[in-house]
Amino acid sequence: MSQSPVDDLSEAGMLRYRQGWSALVRLLHMDRSFSGRERNCAFLNLGGGRFADISAVSGFDFPDDGRAVVASDWDFDGDLDLWVTARTAPRLRLLRNDLAAGGRWLALRLHGDGEVSNRDAVGARCELWMEGDPRPLVRGVRAGDAFLSQSATWLHFGLGAGGEVDRLVVRWPGGVEETFSGVVAGGRFDLRQGAGVAERWTPPTGGKPLAASPQQVEPVGDAARVVLPDRLPLPPISVAGGAEIPDADLVGPLLINLWASWCAPCVAELRDWTRHADRIRGAGLRVLLLNTDALAEGGDPSAARALLEEIGFPFEAADASPQTVQLLDLYQRVFLDRWLPLPVPSSFLVDRHGRVAVIYRGPVRAGTVVADLDLLDASPEELRAAATPFRGRWATPPPVVGPGGFVSQLVDHSLLEVAEVYLRRYAD
User: What phi and psi values does residue 191 have, to the nearest 5 degrees?
Assistant: First the structure.
């Protein structure tokens, strides 16, 4: 991982820093992981410097690309619940602590005076002394204790089944030491600097009960149906020999498909489309096959033509040029943000303005494509809802995708002339 520059702020040092981040971002785009897809871990403190791995039995071991974990007594039941964030979805989890109550606890919230100490009491240190125990329990108020996150400022003490509270000593950020009375196990208390007496705090009532929601895990695989929440025009499409297909022939409803004769899922897909040809035509959908056999070393497109004749494929077909396959591959990276090679079969559903509405990685059935034609005239809000695999409420307007991401891909691959042509088409 690239290290942030601390001492070396020279031009060479800053260049290394930027190059490190560029390499890191590229690896993430290529579906690599910060953590190597390690499951989340949870360890139980057994005392004496020993810990037990309880990751699986606790239900904590999600296969997320985890980032941070923070603690708070979210449901006010006296134990700490955990919020977990991840780079991958779901981005936020609440793990509610439902362990049977077996020990006592105490929660404290500190308030600085705003003069000698800050009002949030960040930096304060509490020493809780229990009867018969020569060692105090120590907690401190911190501002941020995980990646871009912070636990609750309530200080939670687990007291076990031992004795009662002997005394509570607070060392405020300004250096003042203060002893508080009135603190007992099993309660929540506000500690105000200079008061010397703890104030009991009662949680609010009438909150909505929390219900666990099952996580619908999609099966692992390369196939995907990707509805685009916003659309960009197709890149230039050419066939073998370099002849470019006119823009007027690339307006929809149109389904462009990349396939190969040696690909069993491709053949099964084409047979399905052939059986449902009347339904496809009746929906007003055109189909354009682009065969990739000739792009493989020693490949011969004649096998593809023989196969199409055998199954009686009723739609348009041609041989794809190498540049078309490359451009479609770079195009899909912009939307998926995962720079994985475009597989065969892959299909692109194009709307009436020559913009891609849906990308299908892997085989897709005719009924799915026909049903997706309803999305071609959907509103931005409807598109965003269709593009998201889970329900929710949005706090931002629907996204607007500009040509910059695709043009950046073209420039990175030295396709400057194509980038210029694409920008002009986009402007038109």
Answer: -115, 115
- Average per-residue pLDDT for the chain: 90
Strand order in the sheet with 356-361: 224-227, 356-361, 346-350, 254-259, 286-291, 316-319
Question: Is the Cβ–Cβ distance between 150 and 183 less than 8 Å?
Answer: no
Q: How much is the pTM?
A: 0.70
Give me the amino acid identity at 14. Answer: M
Asked if residue 122 lies in contact with residue 129, where contact means CB atoms within 8 angstroms, the answer is no
Cα–Cα distance between 248 and 12 in angstroms, integer?
50
Between CA 367 and CA 386 the distance in angstroms is: 17
371-418 pLDDT, tens per residue?
Answer: 999 999 999 999 999 998 777 888 999 989 999 999 999 999 999 999
CA separation for the pair 202, 188 (Å, rounded): 7
**90 vs 87: CA distance, rounded Å:** 8
User: What distance in Å separates the CA atoms of residue 270 and residue 268, rounded to the nearest whole number?
Assistant: 6
Q: Which residues pair with 83 in a beta bridge?
A: 70, 94
